């Protein structure tokens, strides 16, 4: 079964990212939850969802999103997801998991930008 990437999915991801840039994580969550099938962008969707939930201090649900993103994303982005997971694990008192996530994240500090296929737009994932 082939999954096609729809313009609506791309628009929703870009809109959610824009909401995050504006400090509107609740609106970002609403937009991300409207996406039924992100296809090849499921990893970025999970990562953005985790970032929004973390900003809302909903660390338990953010952990779920970041864990899924870490499994789906390529290595550099995976390390970013692990770094975010470490902070969420600490927030919920899971210090052993936080330590493990910190090791998996490594020492790299970067701002993450991913180019979407078939667009000239960038999704700014988690840049501070």
Structure description:
By secondary structure, this protein is mainly alpha-helical. It has a single domain, classed as Serine Threonine Protein Phosphatase 5, Tetratricopeptide repeat, CATH 1.25.40.10. The protein is built from 6 helices and 2 strands, in the order H-H-H-H-H-H-E-E. Strands 1-2 form a two-stranded antiparallel sheet. Strand 1 (112-115) and strand 2 (122-125) form a beta hairpin. The termini are far apart.
User: Approximately how much beta-strand content do the residues carry?
Assistant: 5-15%
- The helix fraction, in percent, is 55-70%
Shape: globular
Q: What structural class should be given to the helix and strand makeup?
A: mainly alpha
Could you say what the CATH architecture is?
Alpha Horseshoe
**Which residues form runs of ≥5 with pLDDT under 50?**
118-128
CATH class: Mainly Alpha
* Radius of gyration using CA atoms only: 14 Å
Intertermini distance: 37 Å
Please summarize the sheet with the most strands.
2 strands, antiparallel
* Spatial ordering of strands, largest sheet: 1-2
């Amino acid at each position: 079964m082939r999954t096609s990437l729809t313009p609506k999915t791309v628009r929703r991801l870009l809109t959610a990212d824009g909401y995050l840039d504006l400090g509107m994580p609740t609106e970002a969550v609403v937009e991300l939850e409207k996406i039924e099938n992100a296809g090849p962008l499921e990893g970025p969707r999970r990562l953005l969802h985790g970032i929004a939930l973390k900003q809302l201090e909903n660390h338990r649900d953010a952990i779920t999103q970041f864990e899924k993103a870490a499994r789906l994303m390529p290595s550099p982005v995976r390390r970013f997801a692990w770094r975010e997971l470490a902070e969420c694990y600490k927030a919920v008192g899971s210090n052993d998991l936080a330590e493990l996530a910190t090791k998996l994240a490594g020492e790299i500090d970067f701002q993450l930008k991913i180019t979407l296929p078939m667009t000239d737009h960038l999704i700014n994932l988690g840049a501070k």
